[in-house]
Amino acid sequence: MDRKLVSAVVVALAMAWQGAMAEDVTVVGPVTRIVLAPDGQSAVATLKDVRSGSEVRIDISDELTLDKFKDRRIVEGDEVRSRFEKKEGGNASKSFRKTAGC
Amino acid sequence: MRRKKLSGVMVAVALLLGPLAAVAADEDVSRRIDALSREIEQLKAQVRVNEEKAARSEVEAKAVTQRSQERALDRWLTIGGDYRFRVDSLRGETRPFTDVAATFANAQNRLQAEFFANPNAATGGALTGLMQFAQGMNAVRTYSDALAFLGANGAMAQGLGNFAVPVAAYKPRNDTLYTNRLRLDLHAKATQDVSVTTRLAMYKTFGAQDDDAVTNGGAAPFFADRVGVFDGTVGHVPSSSTVAVDRAYATWSNITGRDIWFSVGRRPSTNGAPSNLKLNEPRPGNGGTPSLLVDYAFDGMTLGYAPDIDGFAGAYGKICYGRGFESGFRHTPANAIQDTDMFGLSVVPIDTDKLRVWTQWNRGFHIFDAPKMSGTFFGDTAPRADLGDIDWFGLGAMSTLKNIGPGSLTLFADAALSVTHPSNNVSAQFGFQGLLTGGFFAPEAPTSKTGHAIALGLRYDLPSRTRIGFEYNRGSKNWITFAPAADDVWTAKAGARGNVYELYVIQEFGGTPVSSFGSKAFFKLGAQYYDFKYTGSNNWVGAPVRIADINGQFSTLTPLKKAWDIYATFEVKF
Asked: Fewest 10 Å CB contacts: which of B159, B296, B496, B536?
């Protein structure tokens, strides 16, 4: 009984998470342009999607990524995996980080 | 009359031929028009061909340009590296001990001299007895063997005391040890998801082509990780101008379109977090291992996954495998040694500037008693015993807080546990000591030993590019780590059984980076103080003994009570 309950909860959580993720778009590709706002509170980064070859503009406002732009830990040419949400005609970043690997 | 007739005929002919001539002229004009039309059509066709050619040329030119851009070196090859000049001023205090290697050498020399001076049955028998003792000793494999051997040869073992070479306490010092270190990094992106990373390294002592300056050349070394340079430490311990391949690995990223990667080769398993702070290097990212647990240039592989989960930014996990010693063919008359392997599991639930948390478990399988080294104080060494396995557990965190006063403050705390699982084997070449068990000629039944260690530290970064750091390490009696490649001259402070304090100041230059965004130059001034509480830091062979209790016992290494290192560096990262 307990196992069934745990399984149901796990499946429900997984489906909820998948559902939430389904609304997001993930793009992988090199950063072709980073434009930091003069006040440093936002930025627009352009990625070249390796799958489609098209360029995607992503609006970034989280401090973690902005700090990486400011101290050059992410620069143009770096390959990045970005997850964003289409919002008000733009692409609002939810995560923006270099592709994993070592 | 004739003339009239002739004129009439001519008029008639003219009247007759006039229209005919007009018709002929029209046809001529028509032909010319046709010819001109054809020429125009031909010209038009030619123009079309030329236009198509031009268009094709433009497309081809664009394609060529794109191809050349895609193949441009800066799109797929990154070159970097660093140079470091370092000067160390070293001081230490030892405890009195009896030098094992010197004692054996003394016994052999004296018995040989006595035999050659007075060759008779007694002197010959003594010399033969010593040789048989040494041969028999090398045949010992297990704890039981050791007890049996010492039971049968107790007199000889005690007799060695007559040849003992006691070493009184002394204060080693080296006012100036200069070193040069050059590392060249290459990163090549071969295909969309596959890259190769390489680091070539040279770490040379000024005025020498060997490691004597850090191994107490000519006398018993102070620490097991500074007996000589070997596979896991080459390029990390000062020695010669030989350029070694410190890192060379291929990485396949974005496997199945997810943030999964597989990487194989000579790994970036050195200088991990939080040692990057005092080394003034960026955080190691997905690479590296916690510096309290592992600092060793491993040949191995990693399979990792970095799930993108809200609230767990930068999270990743990976399993790692490394080979510490390759024993070669097995089941041969000469080889009874197993390969030494390391397996690890690392989970980093969050990796942001504000908070990075790491957890790690490693297991070392078939731990050897000595690595392969050439020309050490003990001669050429090699693994001769599989002493057992060791488990390591680690948990640490690092946090950078901005706007603390004029600068930012980074704090870290790391804790670790080591648990041994000894085999029944003992090390014959080290007097029947086992995995953290026994003393020289004093074997101890194999029992599991647990040790623990902590590392605490902070670094304050000022807007003037000044960085001030302080670190504290403490290791317990039975603490053992796997960090011989650590960037410490005396011994890896992560493996110290006692307390280690380190204070440093880094001053970066303010010049604009040219060679890369991360290029920089800086000076560093630092000081380390080791306060050892037990013997055998960074050595898993033999049981630790309280430093205060050391007073003339047999020891293969020189027991160090205290050590200081005041150092300065000039470093350029490009």
From this structure: B159
Q: Which residues contact B509 (CB under 8 A, 6 or more apart)?
A: B465, B520, B521, B522
Cβ atoms of residues B428 and B141 within 8 Å: yes
- Backbone CA torsion sign across A66, A71, A76, A80: negative
Residue recorded with tokens 């026994």: B438
Cis peptide before B274 (omega within 30 of 0): yes
- Kindly report, residue by residue over B138-195, the tens digit of the pLDDT: 999 999 999 999 999 988 888 898 999 999 999 999 999 999 999 999 999 999 999 9
Instruction: Check whether B299 has a pLDDT greater than 70.
Output: yes
Q: By the 8 A CB rule, do B81 and B184 touch? A: yes
- Paired strand residues for B340: B325
Q: Residues of chain B whose C-beta is under 8 A from some C-beta in A?
A: 74-75, 192, 195, 197, 249, 251-254, 257, 259-261, 263, 268, 282, 284-288, 302, 304-306, 308, 310, 313-314, 316, 352-354, 517-518
Give the DSSP H or E segment for B546: none
Q: Which of B462, B490, B436, B403 is nearest to B215 (CA)?
A: B490
Beta carbons of B181 and B201 less than 8 angstroms apart: yes
Q: A67 — contact with chain B (CB < 8 Å)?
A: yes
The tokens for B304 are 């990792």
- One DSSP character per residue, B42-56 reads HHHHHHHHHHHHHHH
Mean pLDDT across B65-82: 80
Among all residues of chain A, which has the CA nearest to that of B400? A64
Kindly state the helix (H) or strand (E) to which residue A45 belongs, with its residue range: strand A43-48
Chain A residues closer than 8 Å to B288 by CB: 102
Q: Which residues are within 8 A (CB) of B203 and not within 5 positions of it... i.e. 6 or more apart?
A: B179, B180, B181, B235, B236, B237, B238, B239
Query: To which residue do tokens 């268009």 refer?
Result: B55
**Which chain A residues have a beta carbon less than 8 Å from that of B322?**
none
- A81 and B288: CB-CB below 8 Å? no
Q: Closest by alpha carbon to B217, among B558, B487, B568, B486?
A: B558
Average pLDDT over residues B390-402: 97
Contact state of A81 with B259 under an 8 Å Cβ cutoff: yes
The pLDDT of A9-36, averaged and rounded, is 74
User: CA-to-CA distance for A17 and B386, rounded, in angstroms?
Assistant: 48
Contact B156, B61 (CB under 8 A): no
Q: What is the ipTM of this complex?
A: 0.82
As to burial, measured by CB atoms within 10 angstroms (0-12 exposed, 13-18 middle, 19+ buried), residue B325 is buried
Question: Judging by beta carbons within 10 Å of its beta carbon (0-12, 13-18, 19+), is residue B485 exposed, middle or buried?
Answer: buried
Q: What is the pLDDT of residues B26-40, one digit of tens each?
A: 788 888 888 888 888
Give exposure, B126-154, as e/b (b: 16+ Cβ within 10 Å).
bbeebeebeeebeebbbbebbeebbeebe
So what CATH class is A23-98? mainly beta
Region class of B521: left (phi > 0), else alpha (psi between -120 and 50), else beta: beta
User: CB B313 to CB A102 under 8 A?
Assistant: no
What amino acid occupies position B147? L
SS3 string of B82-126? EEEEEEEEEEEEECCEEEHHHHHHHHHHHHHHHHHHCCCHHHHHH
Residue B267, Cβ density class (10 Å: 0-12 exposed, 13-18 middle, ≥19 buried): buried
